[in-house]
Amino acid sequence: MDTVTLHGIKIPFAPDEVSPVIWQAIISGRYEAKEAKWVFKAVKRGDRVLELGSGIGVITSLMATIPDVRIWAFEANPSTAALAQRVLDTNTAGNVLLTQGILAAGEPADHRFYVRKDLWMSSMDKEQGPYEHEISLASANIDNFIAAHEINVLVMDIEGAERDLLQKADLSGIERIFLELHDHLYGLAGIRDITQALAEKGYAYDPRGSYGPCVLFAKDETVREYEDDTAEHHMGL
């Protein structure tokens, strides 16, 4: 087993545990590079964070370095969740709880999840591309989870499922939402749907924490003392 360091986070697994594309992205430093920098503009000291789509746990581990932050993370893909737990066990100190499963708006339901060789392509979208196999996942209600755990920040990278969730969920109590948009899956129409839905819930696009497809929507008007080197400090660069 190899251990490489990515954005200051130790990655304790062997190259053959992920696809060659993913491994090259990890060792080159490209894997989640934009998210690794900009998530620090969304999450601050003392936040209670819900993360949907933790992947291998890199962004989760970075958020966990922020003082007094608590994180509840979800990852749908069982094999990816197992890798993420290994990364979290190596890099975090008990302030993260990872669950293999999904949260969705509305009543609990069974969902089909399509597992693909490149883990960042696994999703609930059957049409996204060829898949290795499919699994059934029972969802829990996201708004109930937010209320029960007093979540105030939502971080998500769920390969297109954000469109439906952000339109249908209430999101009461959430101050900031940091997500990766997937316009290649739903086009500008999907981005319009997301933006309009969040505007109706009182959120505004926040350019201070957005870069390309990694965007921050916020309700609060508090001046956030973030500079561009904040993330670099956390990543040890």
From TrEMBL:
This is FkbM family methyltransferase. GO terms for biological process: methylation. It comes from Pseudochrobactrum saccharolyticum. It comes from the Bacteria. InterPro entries: FkbM_mtfrase (IPR006342), SAM-dependent_MTases_sf (IPR029063). CDD domains: AdoMet_MTases. The keyword Lipoprotein does not apply. Residues 70-204 form the Methyltransferase FkbM domain.
